[in-house]
Structures are given as structure tokens and as C-alpha cells.
């Protein structure tokens, strides 16, 4: 088995550990309930395990090619994508108005985890299309919406996001691509973009590019950036495909991983495009969908970690090497070795808490979009804003570290291609980098999110956690789990207050950022472990509940103490980092 | 510049921070002193920077091939190896009796760091040859020595170590290869070995395999293993090359990294070989050189981290993106960003302390081999034994983590091949796995080394560190560096005592192992930073001294506090790891 979907855990989360009743209310019209959710997740899991997971290792070996300017994707991808689209999966959470099923994003994110774990290169095709769809829904004219959305939501056409240029990555304000009005409402876009995922392919249909560029006489910096829609094929009035637009794939990036994903250098040469949203508000248009995109990337880290865990467990049960403690002279499965268990349980402690936190946060996101009460929407949206950088960065950091541990379980076999473990490491690495590096996420958390609601938002979130921890404690019998989490939360509160006070100095923000984000994530994971442990204690004595309690204790006993070290690093401040003159590096 | 050798740091260590007078005494006959060392290191650095570093990136892209059973190495390697051998580098620390220069291993290790940083795939060729030479020197008959050593030491012939089989990795006791006496003093060896670095190549000359196999009726397990020498070409009485031996390359491993290194699956089919050492003592023969090999691997991790640091610094000074704290509106080099500095200084805090500890330990190794007083030899050897697993595992763990941080400095550019950063990550990863995984190293430290001298060895080492820390403190002005290290050492002492007490239970050994090793390494690094800070304080006010003090403060302020988290994890013990039944994973 190449990939085992986390269906038992999803059932535990949706039906026991997390309250999903708000989703049933908000999506009553779509008939949403946990039964529907679990049925769909089972179906999606089957697609992931049976269709795309088997393409993962061969896709990595083959990679995409560029021949005569055309992208050749790896064998099987086009057919798998067609199957996925035919199943209606592309529009799972999309607007019913344009053919989507209008189901919760929560469900979409859980499907995303599985897609990413089974085959990240594949999962990026529908994922980026969804991002483009969201930007169009939120900002484009009705004409553009009616022309493009139905076929993007059906999966007939795909989407791509063209932001980065070689000199403008984190700092998009530096980008140079130009858009000149053609006089007919369209624009001529010229420039070169790099790192464009799904920039082109051979699936058929159309590829809809959203391109950031500058209008003539636009001001410098981010305020001069506008967003344009440029399709690979111009679309005729009857909706059929017309002339080839004047942009092309300059080359495919030679990447560390996700070899089956055509990451393109794109050359736009007076390409025809249409403005999406207001002139000069291009970054704003991109950022409206950023929360969703960043949660998606966080789930990529989680998904690959889960996939790597599954293979590592199978190997550890099978591989006979050395003697287990207390065992006889015969070689024993290495899953008996405490150090192997340490690695496996560490992965699990991160992935299961992460999945729980993802579900909780995704529900907030659905509430933020669909609740009838504006105050409820705003409250939920604020929490999503706060947690988004944490999920993007921490899940992908822990995800990468998890793939490295899972690879280590295989010894030398982990270093060779056949077993697939080294691919997980290479693929997982990108998620720490794209959609804003994890350093950028940490800056976002400390420099922006900690300032929201006059600095009160984070503390409101801490209050929420504290109340739930008290409830978990009241269940009884899990003080060894709840007590260290409550202590860690108290530390996090204090650290937060200190970090907020120092935030007047931007250097202090940067110095604290990454360690603070990791500390924040560990405490949030602790909250979720306390919640899951309380659920498991109340829920009887099934094997899954037994496992939850065991993993919770590994988390609080071995991993949560890292918060103390992170606190010390944060409190060390910026001065030691700034002491060394640049020429002494 | 692809690679900048750490010559300033080496000068600082050899002439100021570490006392090398013992080497000058022990190697007086060879005319060894710091001037000679630095001249040779400069030469070696030049070779690394000018000859092999430029082959690193193209070698990764090309990789080795197997054509008609013949290994084709990447363009430039054969010539580079010839240049290296002609320079006399292969025999730098080898026995003068067989043509070596008899210089300190300390010097060899420092050359190894540079070779590995510039081009790990290349560095493994001379490195493995040296390992084979050492095993032959220590255990083979005079006839074998006279036949093989001179040409291996001159670099005309290379060596390979054939240990692992697909079912026997960490647990070599499971290996199945057979060796049957031919009746003429030679043996017929049959079996398949995997992961054989430098198993074959197209450099010309001969490839001398040291193969572990079982004699007929040998007992099961490690006591039935013997070591054999099997050359690719049999050697005629006059020393010329004769018939091709009956072994062949089955395939090349498809690896995550070190693509320019031909890692072979080898098939021995009644291959002719000769016993090295006593029957049934094969593992013993291999382990006599293990300390040296494992130090070599540790230096690989260090070398790649240093190389990655060099490129990341150059990029960070050049890349304009965002505004530095307190800077104007213009895009500024990212080296001004505290979070970028955090990553760069973390790498430096590990690599410079590691290099210092490597020099210190390597001198102990030279003393252990060459001192006239047996008691001094034994004392030095014990310290080397203790520190070897620490250096192998911690340097390669920190080395890998360093390459990941250096890659992160590049953002998206770090993920594509051209910049070379993702190759560092892939290449560095192997060092955590081979020559005994880092988990095995940790077991060796906790399960075996902590027990040496009735458990006193580690505490003697702590006494030595404590005395030096007191001396450093007495220099004055660096209490903020020495005090936390002294506190961390006190914790390490206590933890060690507790771990030793729990070592009666092998499960506790395994549960503590990896976290304990990391804690031990951090404290040892702290010792070296205190020593270097004291040296810098005494040494005047050069820029290098200023940098040493700054990096020391980053180490003690931000990184050393991790020891507290590790202590908590260690004290959590084995029970939580063992709680979950294997079928619940």
C-alpha cells in the first residue's frame, strides 16, 4: 500500500473531538453532516490511495519535460486529473452559482491533506486552480466570472498564479512586469515570471493565468501592482477556445522535488489579459485568498508527514534487525526499538494535533464566510488570521522534520529512491518555502497578527484555550497531560506580552519571529492533545482512544518542554543577532 | 566562488585556541609544526576551491552511469583524482613505511572537512581508500601489506568497504556472504553487497575491496564474520595487474544525493580473496578503524554546513529584498534581516564549535596512536572513544540542519538546482545514515561509552571541561558566555548520572540515546565556545576575535538553552514510548 488515508482519525475528529454542528447549520442547504463528510472523505481517500499514490514514485523519477515549448506531464497524470474532475472534486467547496457543490472548506482541506500526502505534484493542480477561482470570485467582473469560473470549477480548465519574478520574491513590490491598455478593455502584458506551478500542461482545455503587473505610470512598490487574468487560449464569445495567447513556457525549473509538477518560467510577450479588481489593488486581490492558500500549504506538510509515517510504520513492523529490549536472540522487528518508536511517535504527535487544529481552524474559516451574523463572522475571521501563519509555517516545518525522521527509520534504504522516503523529504521541503517562506509567516504572526484588536486578539485566543484546558482537566485522570499544557500556555501568555512590548522595534520582531511561532504552535498542539485526551477518556476504551492517550503523553512529556528553550531564545532578543557587522559574516 | 576554505578559522584554532604542541613533539621527525600545517591546509584549500568545487554541481546533475557493467564517473573526476594523488595527498597521514608522509591525522581530518565541503562525492574516494588502508595496516599479513599498501597510499589504487547486505545493515550479524577456502591460502567469496561507496570507477588502476563474509561452519551472528581482501584485478608477482577478479557491479544505487559517487550493488561470484586478520574477527578488524571513519563522517557534516554557509552569506549580502530594520525605503541586502542573521549565525555557532572540538579530539587521536607513554595513549584513546559517536552524530545532524537553514536563506531559489543549495541538503543527509546511523551512534554513546572505566570516563571528561571553563571564566568579561555553559555542564553531569543508573534497562538506554547525545554535544560546543571566547578576549581586538565573541553569545543565548528541553525529554524515560502496542501504530 503506497498511501493509507487517515480515515479513523478523521472520524474521531469530526464525530467526537471537534464540534462540527456549526457546519451542519451553515451548510444545511447542501445537506452537510458528518455522515456525508465521512462518505466523501472515504471516497477521496480511495481516489488518493488507488489512483494518484501509485503515480507518485514513478512521477518523481520521470519528471515533466518541455518539448518544442510544450509541457509533457508524467504518464498517468492527465487521466488521473480527468478522473478527479469527472468525480466533481474540483468544485467541492466552490460556489454553486458557477457549478460548485458549495460544501464546507473544512471538507476541502481534509481532501487536500490526502491529495498532498498521496501525491503533492498532483494535488497542486486542483489546489492552484482553486486559488485562482477564489481570486476571480472575489474581484473579477461578472463577464470574467461567467466566462471562466464554470469551466475552472468543473475541472475542464486549470489555473495558475503568476506572482514571482527573479528579483521579486518575498518583496513583490519590486516586480517589473508591465500591462499596457489595448484600448478595447484588454491589456498587453509583458514580463517574465518564475516558479509558476502548473503554468502549463498537456491535460487539454485551457490554463488561466492570474498575473501581477504594473500599469503605465503606476507608482513604485506594492501600490503600483495590479492583477490580470490571461488565458492560454483566448475564449470566443460562444465559450469555445480561440487563438493562442502570446505567452509561453521559457523553461521548467529544475527542482529538488515535486518533479511531476510543471513549475514554469513564463514569458509574457504582449499577452492579452483583463484587469481583475481595481488598478493598483493587485496585491490586495491576491491576499484575499491567502488565508485559504496558506492553510492548504500547511496541510501539504501534514499530509506528506502522514504518508511518510504510514510507510515508516509498515517498514518498522517488517524489518528484522537487532534484538528488541527484553527479547530473545532472534532478530526482531525494529518497531520494538525505543528510538524507532521515538521517531514514529514524534511524527504522530505532530500530525494528529495538527490535523485537529486544522479542522478547528477550517470550521472558523467556514463560519467567517457563511455565518449570518456579521459579528460572528468577524470573530471567526480574526482567529483564522491569527492561526494561518502558525499553520502554514509550523505544519510545514514539523512536516519536513517528520519526513526526515521517517526516512531515518529506513536506514540506508531511506536514502535510495525505490522506497520513496527520500522523495517525501524533497517534496515536503517546498512547502516551507512557497506561499511566503516560513520566515515571512513568522513575521506576519509577530509583526502583524499580534497587533490585531489592539494586541488583544492573541490573548482572547489564549483565554479560549485556557477555558478548554480547564474543561479537559475537569474530566479527570489526565492531569499529566493538561498540567504541562496549562503551564506552557501561561509561559506563552507572558512571552507574548513581552514580545508585543518589544514590537515597537522591527528588529526585535524579526529576531523573535520564528522561535515565537514554533512556541505558539507547540502550545496550540498541546491544547488539541488535551482536548483529544479528554475526548478519549470520556469515550470509552477503544484502541483508538488508547492510542490517543499514549501519543498525548509522548507529546506533553517529550516535545512540549521545547517551549522552555524557545522562550529563552525569544528573550535573548535582537541585539546578539545584530552585533556582527555584515562584513564579518 | 563555489567554495571558500575556512583558513582564517583554522589559523585561529591551530595557533591560538587549541594547544598543538603535542603534535609538534610527536611528529618532530616529519618536521610538523603549525606553519607546515597551515601551508598544507592552504594548498589543500586551493585544490578544493579550484579543482573539485567546480565539479560539484555539474557532477550532481550528470551522476554516475553503469554501461556494459562498467562504471562511468562524471567528467573531470578521474583527472581531479589523479591531480590529488600526484600531489601526495592520499598518503598525508599514512605510514612512511609504505610511502605515506606520516603527518598527523589531525591534519588529515582538516583536509577532509574541506574535501567534503567542496565535493563530498569526490572526498569519499580518498576517504574510503584511507579506511581500507587502516584496516590492512592493522590486521593484514605482511604479504598483503607489501602488495597493496604502497599503491593505495600513492593513490594509484583505491579502496572500498563491502559490509552491508540488503538484510544486514545495522545488524551485520545477519550477513550471508560466504567465503570458502580454495586450498592455496585464498578464498572464494560469494554474495551480494549493497551501498558500496566507490565500489568501482573508471580512474584506472585497481579497486581493493574489503569484504565481510562467513567461513564454512562459522557460527551465527557477529562471531562468524571474517574480513577478506579482494582486488578488482588480481595482482601478479611483479606487482602488475593480472586477471579480472570474479566480482561485478550489479547496479548503481539511485540515491537522494552524492550523485557523483558511484555507490554500487556488488555481486561476488566466487571472487578470489585473502583473509585479513583472524577468522571470526572480521567485525573487530573493521572496528579498529571505525573511530577514524566516524570522525571523518562527522567532518563531512561540518564541511558541507560550512560550504552552505559560505554560499548563503554571499547570497544574503547580494540579494536586495525588503527593507532592513531602521533602513530607508530602498530595498536592502537581506543580511540586514534579523531572521536571516539568526539562520546564518546558528550555522556558524555549530560549525565553528564543531571544528574546534574536531581539532581537539583529533589531537587526542594522534596522541592515542603515537605517544610514547602507554598510559597517555590509553587516556587519549578513551576520550576519543567517548567523543566519536558525539562527533559523528551531532556534526551530521547539525550539519544537515545547517544546510536546510542555508537553503532557506535563498527562498525559492534555494529549491532549484542551479544555486547548489538543495544539493547540499541532499548530500548532507547521507552522513546521518551511513557508518552507523545516528541512532546507532547515540546507542553507542549511552549504552557503551557511558559505561567505560566503570562509568567514570564521562565524568572525567566533565571534570576536564569544568576546569577549562573555570580558566575561561578567570579571563574575565565573558561571564555571560561561561556562566550558562557551566550551568549546562552541571545539568549534563546530573543527567548523566541518572542515565547511567537507568542503563541497566536497555529500553531506557534506547529511549534516552538521541536526546542525550544532542545534549552532550551542545555542552561540548559550549565548552569550545567558552575556550574560543577566552582566547578572543586575551588575543586583542582583531575582527576575527570580535566575530568569535559575537557568535559565542548567539550560541549561549539562543542555542544552549535547548539543553533544558533535552533534559526533560531524557527524564521522560522509556515507558511512554513503550506504552503503545505495535499493532496500534
Automatic annotation (TrEMBL), chains A, B:
One of its GO terms (molecular function) is oxidoreductase activity, acting on the CH-CH group of donors. Residues 40-156 form the Acyl-CoA dehydrogenase/oxidase N-terminal domain. Its cofactor is FAD. The keyword Flavoprotein applies. Keywords: FAD, Flavoprotein, Oxidoreductase. Pfam families: Acyl-CoA_dh_1 (PF00441), Acyl-CoA_dh_C (PF12806), Acyl-CoA_dh_M (PF02770), Acyl-CoA_dh_N (PF02771). Residues 280-444 form the Acyl-CoA dehydrogenase/oxidase C-terminal domain. It catalyses: 3-(methylsulfanyl)propanoyl-CoA + oxidized [electron-transfer flavoprotein] + H(+) = 3-(methylsulfanyl)acryloyl-CoA + reduced [electron-transfer flavoprotein]. It is an enzyme of class 1 (oxidoreductase). Involved in the assimilation of dimethylsulphoniopropionate (DMSP), an important compound in the fixation of carbon in marine phytoplankton, by mediating the conversion of 3-(methylthio)propanoyl-CoA (MMPA-CoA) to 3-(methylthio)acryloyl-CoA (MTA-CoA). This is 3-methylmercaptopropionyl-CoA dehydrogenase. It comes from Acidocella aromatica.
Amino acid at each position: 500500500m503506497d498511501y493509507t488515508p487517515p480515515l479513523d482519525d478523521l472520524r474521531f475528529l469530526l464525530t467526537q473531538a471537534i464540534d462540527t454542528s456549526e457546519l451542519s447549520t451553515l451548510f444545511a442547504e447542501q445537506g452537510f453532516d458528518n455522515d456525508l463528510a465521512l462518505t466523501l472523505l472515504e471516497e477521496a481517500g480511495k481516489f488518493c490511495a488507488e489512483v494518484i499514490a501509485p503515480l507518485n514514485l514513478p512521477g518523481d523519477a520521470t519528471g515533466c519535460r518541455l518539448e518544442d515549448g510544450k509541457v509533457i506531464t508524467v504518464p498517468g497524470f492527465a487521466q488521473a486529473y480527468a478522473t478527479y474532475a469527472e468525480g466533481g472534486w474540483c468544485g467541492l467547496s466552490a460556489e454553486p452559482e458557477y457549478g460548485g457543490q458549495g460544501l464546507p472548506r473544512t471538507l476541502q482541506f481534509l481532501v487536500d491533506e490526502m491529495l498532498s500526502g498521496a501525491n503533492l505534484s498532483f494535488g497542486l493542480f486542483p489546489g492552484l486552480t482553486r486559488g485562482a477561482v477564489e481570486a476571480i470570485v472575489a474581484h473579477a467582473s461578472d463577464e470574467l466570472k461567467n466566462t471562466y469560473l464554470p469551466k475552472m470549477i468543473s475541472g475542464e480548465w486549470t489555473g495558475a498564479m503568476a506572482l514571482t519574478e527573479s528579483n521579486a520574491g518575498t518583496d513583490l513590490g519590486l516586480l517589473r512586469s508591465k500591462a499596457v491598455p489595448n484600448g478595447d478593455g484588454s491589456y498587453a502584458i509583458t514580463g517574465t515570471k518564475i516558479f509558476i506551478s502548473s503554468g502549463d500542461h498537456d491535460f487539454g482545455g485551457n490554463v488561466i493565468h492570474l498575473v501581477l503587473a504594473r500599469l503605465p505610470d503606476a507608482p513604485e512598490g506594492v501600490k503600483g501592482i495590479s492583477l490580470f487574468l490571461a488565458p492560454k487560449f483566448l475564449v470566443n464569445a460562444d465559450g469555445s477556445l480561440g487563438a493562442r495567447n502570446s505567452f509561453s513556457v521559457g523553461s521548467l525549473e529544475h527542482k529538488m522535488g515535486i518533479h511531476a509538477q510543471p513549475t514554469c518560467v513564463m514569458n509574457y510577450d504582449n499577452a492579452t489579459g483583463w484587469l481583475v479588481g481595481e488598478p493598483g489593488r493587485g496585491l490586495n486581490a491576491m491576499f484575499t485568498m491567502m488565508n485559504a492558500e496558506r492553510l492548504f500549504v500547511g496541510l501539504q506538510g501534514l499530509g506528506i508527514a502522514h504518508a511518510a509515517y504510514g510507510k515508516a510504520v509498515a517498514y518498522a513492523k517488517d524489518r528484522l534487525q537487532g534484538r528488541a529490549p527484553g527479547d530473545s536472540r532472534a532478530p526482531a522487528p525494529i518497531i520494538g526499538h525505543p528510538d524507532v518508536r521515538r521517531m514514529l511517535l514524534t511524527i504522530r504527535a505532530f500530525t494528529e494535533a495538527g490535523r485537529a487544529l486544522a479542522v478547528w481552524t477550517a470550521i472558523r474559516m467556514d463560519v467567517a464566510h457563511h455565518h449570518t451574523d456579521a459579528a460572528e463572522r468577524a470573530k471567526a475571521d480574526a482567529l483564522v488570521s491569527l492561526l494561518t501563519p502558525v499553520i502554514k509555517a509550523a505544519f510545514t516545518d514539523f512536516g519536513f522534520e517528520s519526513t526526515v525522521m521517517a526516512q531515518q527509520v529506513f536506514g540506508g534504504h531511506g536514502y535510495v529512491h525505490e522506497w520513496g522516503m527520500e522523495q517525501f523529504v524533497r517534496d515536503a521541503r517546498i512547502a516551507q518555502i512557497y506561499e511566503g517562506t516560513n520566515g515571512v509567516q513568522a513575521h506576519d504572526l509577530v509583526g502583524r497578527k499580534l497587533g490585531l484588536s489592539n494586541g488583544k486578539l492573541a490573548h482572547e485566543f489564549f483565554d479560549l484555550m485556557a477555558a478548554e484546558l480547564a474543561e479537559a482537566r475537569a474530566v479527570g485522570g489526565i492531569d499529566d497531560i493538561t498540567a504541562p499544557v496549562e503551564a506552557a500556555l501561561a509561559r506563552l501568555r507572558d512571552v507574548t506580552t513581552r514580545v508585543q512590548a518589544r514590537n515597537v522595534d522591527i528588529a526585535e520582531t524579526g529576531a523573535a519571529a520564528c522561535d515565537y511561532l514554533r512556541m505558539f504552535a507547540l502550545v496550540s498542539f498541546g491544547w488539541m492533545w488535551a482536548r483529544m485526551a479528554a475526548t478519549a477518556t470520556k469515550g470509552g476504551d477503544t484502541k483508538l482512544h488508547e492510542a490517543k492517550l499514549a501519543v498525548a503523553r509522548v507529546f506533553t512529556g517529550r516535545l512540549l518542554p521545547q517551549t522552555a528553550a524557545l522562550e529563552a531564545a525569544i528573550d535573548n532578543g535582537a541585539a546578539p543577532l545584530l552585533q556582527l557587522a555584515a562584513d564579518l559574516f
